[in-house]
Amino acid sequence: KEVRWLESNECLKKLVLEEHVPVETYWDLGINDYTVVLFVQRVFQRVHLVDCQAFFGESMLEIATKLKKTDYRFGTFHLPHDANNREQTSGLSRKDVLQSVFRDVVVHERPKVKEDAIDAFRTTHKRFLISNHTEGINTFWKALRGYRREFNEETRVFGKAPRHSWESHYV
Does residue 75 contact residue 24 with C-beta atoms inside 8 Å? Predict the structure, then answer.
């Protein structure tokens, strides 16, 4: 329903990066899986999704180094709760590693229930404008359109939890 609203209200369009507005990042950390980073600018009352990048098999330091080489003027890096977990090899958390390259790193608490995070999108999606000029955003858009809840064949009812798939890393 939310995706249809975004489509019908022409929220997918070519956006110009606002040079005076910092780019915030939102992360889904993958372990033996994809790490997905959304790049967002808050422009007045709107949320501009300007880019999305996925990484596989790369360390947090490798990802941070790649991001440092971009033209973005970064603001806050928003990480999920598991960014505080320490890695066995280095003893450092992913937050520690990212903070060694970028200053403003925030780790958010785990939502009490997954539906709270999903509801947050449902209540804010009307403020979104989504850039359509990067391959990463196009992949994000496909993921958003393909995001589904688990369906129980026995009871013929959708469950509350989202189905784990490649799409779930982006949403």
Answer: yes
- Cβ atoms within 10 Å of 48's Cβ, excluding its own: 22
Query: In angstroms, rounded to a whole number, what is the distance separating the alpha carbons of residues 28 and 101?
Result: 18
Closest C-alpha among 4, 24, 54, 15 to residue 168: 54
**Nearest to residue 43, comparing CAs of 171, 155, 152, 131?**
131
Rg of the chain on CA atoms, in Å:
17
CB atoms within 10 A of CB 3: 15
CA proximity to 160, closest of 148, 149, 146, 171: 149
Q: How far apart are CA 128 and CA 12, in angstroms?
A: 9
The answer to whether residue 167 scores a pLDDT higher than 70 is no
- Model confidence, pTM: 0.78
The tokens describing 65, both together, are 């180094």
